[in-house]
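Why does residue order matter? Because the sequence determines the fold. Keep that principle in mind as you read this record.
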Amino acid sequence: MAAMRPIISALYGLYHDEEETIASGAQKMVSYNVDGVVKNESTSIDIGYFCTPEYSDVSAVIFSSLATWGKVRALADNPNARTVYKTLHPNPGSLHPIMRVATKADYHEHLLDGLFVMHNPFAKHKLAPKALGHERLAQGFVKPDGELDFVAPDDFLLMRFLMSVTATGHAGV
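Structure:
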């Protein structure tokens, strides 16, 4: 969920420390709560917008780091495209995601793959999970004990990389 880490920090004030995780050899991601980040010597930016009632007018945030030109190309009906897709998916019990590689002819992606709904636990008007419920959609909630939890498909699309190959037209090379 590396692409999701900035929005998780901004909304829920939870920082995932990859450097500390690697340095310590931890089996689980090292994370801790933060309430701000330093921009420069004189400016600090508050984060954790869903950690207090201050933003209770916001029911949820819909977010995708994968709503890009790559999504358009992935959804295009063009099986002969000379494109290779490398994707990352959750790997239960491991810090390392499952990597898949496929050519365009064998690659399938749903419009909602990679899309998150982040629910505000302090919302005045909570968004019912079923309101945007779909089997390809991930939803983030704060459990009663304060722990952040996500409900997502087992093969949720965490990240996508594309590589296209083009012919140069150099005959005889």
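The two ends are 43 Å apart (CA to CA).
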